[in-house]
Design brief:
- This protein is mainly alpha-helical.
- Helices cover about 80% and strands about 0% of the residues.
- Helix 1 runs antiparallel to helix 2.
- The chain starts with 9 loop residues before the first helix and ends with a helix.
- The relative contact order is 0.12.
- The mean pLDDT is about 95.
């Protein structure tokens, strides 16, 4: 039985982006907001790259 998600998986990055965006909305301290925004930007960039790779895999499987 598998309980944990691989921290480098696309699912983990989707969750990370969602969680960080929620934290950013709730945070009032400008310095914490800035750091959270940086973490969110990094996670979102990584997620976007992973999503592109996933889309390419799907497209390759559909054409073969």
């Amino acid at each position: 039985m598998k309980y944990a998600i691989d921290s480098e998986s696309i699912e983990a990055y989707r969750t990370r982006v969602f969680t960080l965006s929620q934290e950013l909305r709730r945070e009032n301290d400008p310095s914490i907001r800035a750091m959270t925004a940086l973490y969110l930007a990094e996670a979102a960039t990584t997620l976007a790259r992973m999503e592109v790779l996933e889309a390419k895999k799907l497209a390759a499987n559909q054409t073969s």
